[in-house]
Amino acid sequence: MSALPQRKYISPEEYLTTERESLEKHEYFDGEIFLMAGSSLKHVTITGNISAELHARLKGRNCRPLQSDMRVHIPKTGLFTYPDVLVVCGKPEFLPDANLDTLTNPVLIVEVLSASTESYDKSIKFDNYRSLESLREYVLVSQDAKKVIRYTKQSDGSWVLMDFIGDKTEIVLSSIECRLSMEDIYDKVDFDS
Q: Which of 80, 105, 127, 149 has the least CB density, counted as fewest CB within 10 Å?
């Protein structure tokens, strides 16, 4: 009987050194590096729509939307990841190094669901995100139908889920005091393709 090959543990420092030189994006968790898949046209369109709408609504305020090139670190769990869209309010906080490329204090995170990530985004990833003290809302956006799921952190630390479905629906984002309409989120998204 042969032994299973040992998995090599990669430290967070080794991950960051490699990631900062990589042409591809990778998540990191528990000593392992995971290549992130490319995105579909629907995914990219929805992400762009949300980012553009948040940018317009937050103009002149002390909050800024950032896209999926901004890496986020969850200190309590060790996850390094790239949310599709996030918002940071006040002073951005980064890992304590000179690179200022790994944020630790988002107040809102948006993930656009895909068949390959939906289960992960709704469970394990959300479990990790919830440990961020700064996080107030987590929004999951379907790319297959006009459907949005919003989790909002309550004052007692619990999270409340609310579903938004349909064309004329508005999603209230209490963490940043603004609203997004389904029409804006899904502008130019063709569900027939």
A: 127
pLDDT one-digit tens code per residue, 4-59? 556 789 999 999 999 999 999 999 999 999 988 878 999 999 999 999 999 999 99
The encoded tokens of residue 103 equal: 């944020």
Residue 143 lies in a domain: yes
Q: Please state, in angstroms and rounded to a whole number, the distance separating the CA atoms of residues 106 and 90.
A: 10
Tokens of 110: 């948006």
SS (H, E, C) the chain: CCCCCCCCCCCHHHHHHHHHHCCCCEEEECCEEEECCCCCHHHHHHHHHHHHHHHHHCCCCCEEEEECCCEEEECCCCEEECCCEEEEECCCCECCCCCCCEECCCCEEEEECCCCCHHHHHCHHHHHHCCCCCCCEEEEECCCCCEEEEEEECCCCCEEEEEEECCCCEEEECCCCEEEEHHHHCCCCCCCC
Task: Say how far apart CA 89 and CA 104 lie, in whole Å.
Answer: 12
Q: Is residue 14 part of a domain?
A: no
Q: What is the pLDDT of residues 67-121, one digit of tens each?
A: 999 999 999 999 999 999 999 999 999 999 889 999 999 999 999 999 888 899 9
Total structural domains in the chain?
A: 1
CA distance 76 to 158: 18
